[in-house]
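Subgroup meeting minutes
Present: P.N., E.W., G.H.
Scribe: E.W.

1. P.N. recapped why we're keeping a running log of single-chain structure predictions: easier to compare across weeks, and new members can see raw inputs and outputs side by side.
2. G.H. added today's entry (286 aa).
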Amino acid sequence: MTTIQSILFPVDFSPASEAMAPFVKRAAEMCLAQVTLLHVFDLRSSGFELMERSLREMKEDREHTARERLNSFLVPEFPLEGCTRLLRVGDAATRIAEVARDRHFDLIVMPTYAGTFRRMLLGSTTAKVLNDADSPVMTTQHAESITPRPLEHREWVCAVSLQEKDSERVLRFASQVAESVHANLSIIHAIPGGEPGLKLQFDLDERVESKERKLARARIEELQHRVGSHASVKVVIGPIKDALTEAARRLGADALVIGRSPETGVRLRDLTYAVVRDAPCPVVSV
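Output recorded in log:
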């Protein structure tokens, strides 16, 4: 049984949400998971609007309109009889994280945007969800109205930092999902070194101290034994973000699995934002 049985798909009725639908549907089919659509609407209004009617009337009207739009959105992809649709009010990122936590969703799938989001993640709904959600979050790069690259299940790459608890948690998730979708799994570990802009060192036989290399491989072997994984391993030297994104590119990764700190409220969790911004494939942050 796959570790992903329920997927939360937040939508805002934008072209980006429409473009994301085939991607989410494919992910659900691969994992045999149920998809739930969530829309969060905002009650903020101008003073003029409140002069015309009460706050209660305004809320009821907006809720009715939002419910009608939600029930008619992406019906061909997610028929009403087989897809729960949730409506919430308030701050979008806060409500998404709450729903995912309270209903124990296994995965949140959200779009990123080719414009502001990919240049500067802070301030976006997706960035806040990455920061606040307990569930794994899958993001993928695409423009406002361009469908993301189709999600396949050929090559998944898992980045491990070798921090004891974090690495085991991330690799266990990646190993279970890769097995369930019949994907090949590779492990990438980056040894920090070199200067930004310098060529990454993938062929390490002569370029990394033997002790450091042997220690990293020994720890990864021990980690795989605990998890029950048999993935191939690549060790890269260079700036961590560049090493991970370039390794994903070279391996032709269909998805890159990375860890993010489980500590609530930590901003810029590890390298999550930077990797999501520059990765050549969807990123699952666990």
